[in-house]
Amino acid sequence: MTSSPHPLLPGPAQMMSELSAALSHFRQVQWVQTTHSTNADLLAMARTENGPLARPWLLGAHLQEQGRGRAGRTWQNRPGANLMFSCAFDIFLPPAQLPTLSPLAGLAACEALRELISPSQRGHLTMKWPNDLLWQSAKLAGILVEVTRAGTARLSPDHYVAIIGMGLNLEDARSLSTSLNRQVADWAEITGKDAQAASATAAGLVASIAQSWYACLNEVTAHGLGFLPQRYATIDALAGQHINVLDNGRILQAGIACGVNTLGQLLLRTPQGESTISIGEVSVRPQKDSMP
Questions:
Q1: Which CATH entry fits the domain spanning 12-233: 3.30.930.10, 3.20.20.140, 3.40.50.2020, 3.30.70.1170?
Q2: What angle, rounded to 10 degrees, do the helices at 101-114 and 202-223 form?
Q3: What does pTM read for this prediction?
C-alpha cells in the first residue's frame, strides 16, 4: 500500500511531482514510501564515484526505518505522522566553518516556516541552538547535518557536500510527549490556530524549507557568515535564558545564553566572563536554580 493515511501527506508519486515542479533547479528530486535513512542514502550517493554529480538533490520518505537524529538518536516516526526529507548541497567552506552549517540549517528552516504562518503567530516559532525548531517551547522539528568530501569531483580544496535532513511532526505530538517525557509540538497544532498555516501543503512545506536552505548556503558562499548573529537573534529561543550545556547528561557549563557568533557558536555569559559553546545539548534551567 503506497497511499498515505494522513490527509496532508499525499502519496509518494504526487509528492515527487509537486516537488519537482516547485524545485525545478534541483537536479534530482525523489520521494519514496520507505527507506532506512534519507540522510544515509544521500551520503552514500555523494560518496559513489560513478554517481550523479550535479546537485542539489532532495530525497524524502513516508517512513524511515532507521531515521537518525543528532548525537546518534533514533527519530521516531510512523507513516503520515512526520514529514521527513534530506537535501544534498555543494558547499565551499574551510573546515573550521563546517560546524556552522548546523545552526545555519536551523535558521533557514525556521525562517521558511515562519513565512507560512500569519505574522501574528510567527513569534511562537523559534529555534533552540543548535537547530531544534520549537513551537511555543515544544519541539516541532529536528535537523541533522552531515558533511562529506566531494570525492574525485572536487572543484577546490574547500569543496564539500552537505547533507541536511529534517523531521517535522505533522501530528502525534500528544503521544510523543508522553513517550519521550518532554514537550513535543506538531504542525496540526499550528494549523488549528492559524488559517495561513492551514493552507500550506506538505509539498509546499518541504519546498519552502529546501529552497531556504539553498538560498542561505548560496548567500554564505557569496557574502560569508557575517549576517548570522543578527538573523539568528530574530528566532532565538534561548536569548537571555539561564541554561545548562550538557554532554551525555553531564553539565559542561551553565550561564546566560547571549546569541551566537559568526561561526554559529553559542555565546554564554558566566560569572567568569563570556565563553563560546561548539557542542553539547542545552537545557533551560528552572528560575530557582538561576545564577544571581
A1: 3.30.930.10
A2: 130
A3: 0.90
47 contact partners, CB below 8 Å, separation of at least 6: 148, 151
Residues of the chain with CATH 3.30.930.10: 12-233
Fold of 242-289: SH3 type barrels. (2.30.30)
Please list the pLDDT of the chain residue by residue as tens digits (292 residues). 333 345 578 999 999 999 999 999 999 999 999 999 999 999 999 988 776 678 999 999 999 886 555 444 555 567 778 899 999 999 999 999 999 999 999 999 999 999 999 999 999 999 999 999 999 999 999 999 999 987 666 778 889 999 999 999 998 777 665 556 678 999 999 999 999 999 999 999 999 999 999 999 999 999 999 999 999 999 999 999 999 999 888 898 999 999 999 999 999 999 999 999 998 888 887 644 444 3
Residue 268: C-alpha distances to residues 102, 158, 246, 253, 255 (Å) = 18, 30, 13, 9, 6
